[in-house]
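Hi R.,

Here are the chain sequences for the assembly we discussed:
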Amino acid sequence: MTNWTLAARAAKMNPSAIREILKLTDKPGIISLAGGLPSPKTFPLQEFTAACNTVMARDGAAALQYATSEGYAPLRQAVADMLPWTVDPDQVLITTGSQQALDLIGKVFLDKDSRMLVETPTYLGALQAFAPQEPIAVSVASDDDGILVEDFAAKAGTGADKARLAYVLPNFQNPTGRTMTEARRAALVAKATELGIPLIEDNPYGELWFGDAPPAPLTARNPDGCIYMGSFSKVLAPGLRLGFLVAPKAIYPKLLQAKQAADLHTPGFNQRVVAEVIRDGFLDRHVPTIRALYQQQRDTMLAALEHEMAGLDVAWTRPAGGMFLWVRLPEGVNAQALLAEAVERNVAFVPGAPFYAEHPDTRTLRLSYVTASSDEIRTAIAALATAIRAHQTKG
Amino acid sequence: MTNWTLAARAAKMNPSAIREILKLTDKPGIISLAGGLPSPKTFPLQEFTAACNTVMARDGAAALQYATSEGYAPLRQAVADMLPWTVDPDQVLITTGSQQALDLIGKVFLDKDSRMLVETPTYLGALQAFAPQEPIAVSVASDDDGILVEDFAAKAGTGADKARLAYVLPNFQNPTGRTMTEARRAALVAKATELGIPLIEDNPYGELWFGDAPPAPLTARNPDGCIYMGSFSKVLAPGLRLGFLVAPKAIYPKLLQAKQAADLHTPGFNQRVVAEVIRDGFLDRHVPTIRALYQQQRDTMLAALEHEMAGLDVAWTRPAGGMFLWVRLPEGVNAQALLAEAVERNVAFVPGAPFYAEHPDTRTLRLSYVTASSDEIRTAIAALATAIRAHQTKG
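And here is the predicted structure of the full complex:
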């Protein structure tokens, strides 16, 4: 195969930085704050087992047959009913995880060298999902409240150079944990509408709020100007690979066609099982237990950071929900270099650089507070502080 | 959204011809020979239910957590063990149906305007899966034994114009039901190796043989020159969306990266359930029952065609396995036009034109003999003959 010619994009394909780190850190005794793995304690095993049996007994062969690309009708209806604005189930497309929704959106919107706007930093998996279309990802300046609308307008471009889409994750963002304020949302939607730039709103963590629910989604403010993405990965379990998108009716058929071509349909058995688990309001009872657990673990991590990082010039975010917080290291400390020293001390994190579409800040890193237990979090943050001190001494 | 600019490819995206036909034919009382739906009688419902319970009891949360993009190790091992040449499990990538394998291969091999070679006719779903990369699909002349190797060489191209891949389905092809002979396989692999053109071998139906097993796969003859695709859809159940590819080690990482970007991983629960169902040789006992059922239904359809089409200038293939046969209508009868008359008479089929990358033969159509029962097949073929006669009278 040495004489095979690959697509130009293949030369740019590299293993996911996060997945490579997960391999690096897969050693006995390590405490990983790296992955974005929901706590397995939150998976509703009994309900899931019962639903498997119900679906097989009730639906039998229908659950195992080919199915429509749009998704299982009762699940599409349940998704429409869950959302806080008027959604027709015909606008709901069930996807194989919300990662697939990104792939489909990339196929429908992006040509080679199309401009697309992303936050600074942004979700690494979105950059990877869009990469096969070889767009130019433009990093819009962002602060603790999210994307800066003035810079959004400045970077929107015009004519053939106009951005094809803007990808944003307003609630408890991956990787920073930050949340867009009400005012910022209103301003962004107004500007995107004015400029005619579709907002791709990714909301996998929106239900995982700790104090108050976050402001209404961007899409609720202008459903015809946005594509909304959601997921059952963080409120039920990620191994099911069940996500969804909600699109304006005019664009839905193109996304559906991309879905047909990508994998025909999302496993029908999984769709039926989840529809069975969530009927009768299960999520209303279940999600508060996830919120309570993650809030406690966030509190543990924040307290440990306060304690262990004292005297070090380290800064971090204080997320109001979700799974991650974002750390900025002292001047001169490179997160990638620090990782080796941290792994030696049995703690792992994800360096922040891969989350930047342009101009990475190499002093940043992402910590998850949902996979490890509170005890492990305390141990890990102490080890991380030790690693930083050791690194500074060396430096 | 009227002012949104879409990717150039989006203008070429159309609903799947087959899926649109399935909607058209979704009326009460119709007998559909159109879809490629495996007989639900063949789905191992008890074994699947038992495996769901075993997996949940044994693996619990691990079955519902995020998993590796490569796939569940015991399933990769089982796939490697199933195949009739030496396969390292590290070469096996589990995909969300074999349709996804096509999407990944397209991303890794095809640029806009890359040439790719396909059979005449070819699997429509492959054309759709490759379409987002905007290749030029070149139709290689084919006869009852498969692709013509001389024409393959003539159309291979050179330099920048050299074909990036050749997509072939050697066993009981969708749509024609034909099988490549031993001699043709040997000649094709030799020529592809000489020219350095990767063979993409799709083998979803290979186990469904009626008399003798088909000749060895192309990939078994030159594993470094081929990518092999297989599926559990036709030997277990399609609603699980479980397929796989086997790739040379040098190209595997690129396909893996495309997989990560596309949907992170195939549902881990489904992978564990299938690994559980197939351990201890279940397929060795189960697949013969599918073969027997489909052989009987093929015989029924062939006998009905002999009887009902007598005196009409209609020709058809006699598949030695698989799910489909291919019909050529009398001169002047267009299959698309005939479909309306057939649906009036409560029988549906798929017109052949969408299966051609170039120069469609509009007198062709595809019939499935696996979804409808033998009684229904007899009724449907009689109705089809009536429709042809009515159409000819009109014409």
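Chain B is about 40% helix and 15% strand. Chain B has two domains: 12-43+284-394, 45-282.

Let me know if anything looks off.

Best,
T.
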